[in-house]
Amino acid sequence: MKMPPKMKCSTLHLMLESLNKPIEFQTEVFKKNGDICYKQPLGLLTNMYFLSHPLYAKVMLEDSKKNYWYRHPPYEKMPGSDLFGDENLFTTTDYKSWQHDRKVITNSFDSGVHFLDYSKTIVHLTQKLLDTWENGYKSGDFFPFREELDSLLLDIMINTFYSKVTLGNLSDASKTCRRTFPSVYKTATHTSFFSLKKRQLENDRAYIHNLIGKCIQERLDHPEEYDDVLSHLLHEYSALPKEEKIARIKSHFITFFAAVMVTTSSWIEWTLVELSRNPEMEQKIYEELEKTVGNRTPTYQDIPSFVYLSYFLKEVLRTHPPIHLTIRHALNEDEINGYRIKKDAQMYLLVSNIHRHPEFWKNPDTFDPLRFKDHPFGQETPSAYVPFGTGERTCIGRDFAFLEMHLIIPMILQKFRLRPPPGSKITSQLSLALGNRPSINHMILEHLY
User: Which of 449, 397, 409 is nearest to 160 (CA)?
Assistant: First the structure.
C-alpha cells in the first residue's frame, strides 16, 4: 500500500488557517492536495489524514465504522474539553455505553410520539420572540439577531426536552452558553497565551455545571412523572449511585446545549443570510406560505406542504454545513482506495469539500435549491451529502432540527425580512471545535406590514 500525498503547507499555516478560515482552508486543501492527503505536524508522532471524497467518507463512517472511533487521544487532555464530561454521546470511549445511551435518548426524538407537542412549544416561543421584534424594533432597525435567535433555540430546548425544571435567569444562562460553547476550541488552543480567556472559560464551565446540576437535583427532589429526556435518563440510570447519576446526566445535558449552539443556530443564521442574498427565492417561499397557510400560524400538519422551503433548507446545509469537519481515530491500520491508513491516525473528513465535490455535484458553487427536487440527497450518492453525518452516528437531533426550521423560518417570513448591513462581507466563522456560523451578529429588520 502506498501513502497518500503529503499536505503541501506548513504546520503553522495549517493551525492558523484551520482556526481562522475553516471553510476556505478546506477548499485550499482540496485544490492543492486532491481527495486525500496526510501530514505529520512537527512535534507530533500521530499522522493526520484529510479526506475530501464522498466514497472515502462512506468507508470511514459506514463500511469500516468500527475501525474509526469518534474520540482521539490528543483531544482528551485539551484545556476546555472537560466542559462536556467523559460519558456522553460525543466523548464516551465505551461503545456499549454509547449504544445504550443513544437508544434511551432516541426515544425522546420519536417524531410520531413527541413532535406534535414539541411543535406547539416551538410555535408558542417563536411567536413570543416575534412579538418583541414587532413591538421593540422599527423597520430599518439594526438589531442583534444572533443573540435573540440563540436565546429562542435555548428556550425551545429547555421547554421541550426538560419540561418543568427551573433554570433561574434564562437570560444569564443563554449569555453564558453563547459565550462559552463557541469559544471552547479557540480558548483551549491559545490557553498558554491568553490566561484571562482560560479563567473566563473555567468560570463559565463552573456556572453551567452548577446550573444543570440544580435542574437534575430539582427533579430528584420532586419526582413527578414527566415524559421528557430528563425523566427517561433518570429512569435508565436509577440503579447508579446518586452522584454518578447526576454526573452522567449532566454530561448529556451540556452536550445538548452545545449541539444547539453549534448546529441549529448555524443553520438558521445561514438560512437568513441566504434568503437575503436570494430575494427571488425568498419570495418563492413566501408565495408557498401564502398558498398553504395564508395569514394563520403554521402548524406541524402544514410542514409537508412546505416543499420549496425544504429544498432551500437542504441547500443551506449543503453550502454551509453546521459541522464542517468530522474527526475519527483509526484504531488499526487500514486501507482506503489503495492508500495506507496508519494505526492511531487522526482522520479529518472535510465535509464542505464533500458537499462541493465536482464529480458528484453539478455546478457545486451555485446555490440551487432545486437540485433537491428529484434527489433527496441533491444527487445520486448519499455519502456526498452528510450535513448530519451518516451511519449509526447520524445526528440524533436531526429530525428535531428540521422541525424547528420548518416552523421558525415560515413564521419569520410571514412578518419580517432580515438584511445584512450594506457592504457586509459575510464569511464562515469558527464556532466550537467544528461549527460554522456566519461572521455577522446584527442584521437590519424590515417589517412586512
Answer: 397
| Low-confidence winner among 353-357, 379-383, 389-393, 400-404 (lowest mean pLDDT) | 389-393
Would you say 343 and 332 are in contact if contact means Cβ atoms under 8 Å apart?
yes
CA-closest candidate to residue 440, choices 222, 250, 266: 266
CA atoms of 142 and 147, how far apart (whole Å):
13
Domain positions in the chain are 11-444
Q: What are the distances in angstroms from CA 358 to CA 7, 203, 269, 310, 364?
A: 21, 46, 26, 23, 6
Query: Which long-range contacts link 427-431 to residues 24+ away (Cβ below 8 Å)?
Result: 427/21, 427/23, 427/24, 428/21, 428/22, 428/23, 428/24, 428/320, 428/324, 430/19, 430/20, 430/22, 430/182, 430/185, 430/186, 431/181, 431/182, 431/261, 431/262, 431/265, 431/266
How many residues in the chain? Answer: 449
Taking a C-beta distance cutoff of 8 angstroms, is the pair 208, 167 a contact? no
Give the 3-state DSSP-derived string for 133-164, with helices as H, strands as E and coil as C: HHHHCCCCEEECHHHHHHHHHHHHHHHHHCCC
Task: Tell me the CATH class for 11-444.
Answer: mainly alpha
pLDDT in tens, 249-260: 888 877 777 777
Biggest CA–CA distance in the chain, Å, is 66
Is the pLDDT score of 285 beyond 50? yes
What is the β-pairing status of strands 346-350 and 416-419?
Answer: unpaired
The structure's pTM equals: 0.89
- Between CA 205 and CA 106 the distance in angstroms is 27
Q: Closest Cα to residue 151, out of 186, 176, 180?
A: 176
Q: Taking the alpha carbons of 381, 384, 390, 396 in that order, is the dihedral positive or negative?
A: negative
Res 73: pLDDT? 47
Distance CA 376, CA 385 (A): 9
Q: How many CA atoms lie within 13 A of 350 on its CB side?
A: 26
Contact 272, 426 (CB under 8 A): no
Is 157 a residue whose pLDDT tops 70? yes
Q: What are the residues facing 114 on neighbouring strands?
A: none
β-strand partners of 335: 340
Gyration radius (Cα) of the chain, Å = 22
The amino acid present at 191, given as its one-letter code, is T
Specify the residue for cell string 444527487: 379
